[in-house]
Amino acid sequence: RPTHSRPVPFKGVYTSLSGSLEATSPGTATEQASTASMRPVGRMPFGSSASILLIQSPSTVRFRWRKRRRCDLHRLWSFSLPDSDVARINEARERIEVDQRTGDLIEAMISFNAREPLFDFTIGPVSLAWKHVKEVPAKSEIARTLEHVGTDKITVDVNFEGYEELRARLLAAPKYGNNDDFVDKYAVMHLDIHYDARKDMKNFDGGHFYLSVASNVGNIKAGANCGATPDGRKAGVPLNDAASPMRGMDQNGLTQAMLSVSKPDYTKAATGTVYNIKLTESTFKNIEKRNALRELIRVYFKRGGQEVQINCVSRKNLINAMEHPEENKDLVVRVSGFSAAYVTLADEIQKDILERTEHE
Question: Which of 34, 65, 124, 260 gives a 20 to 30 Å CA spacing to 313?
Answer without folding.
Answer: 260
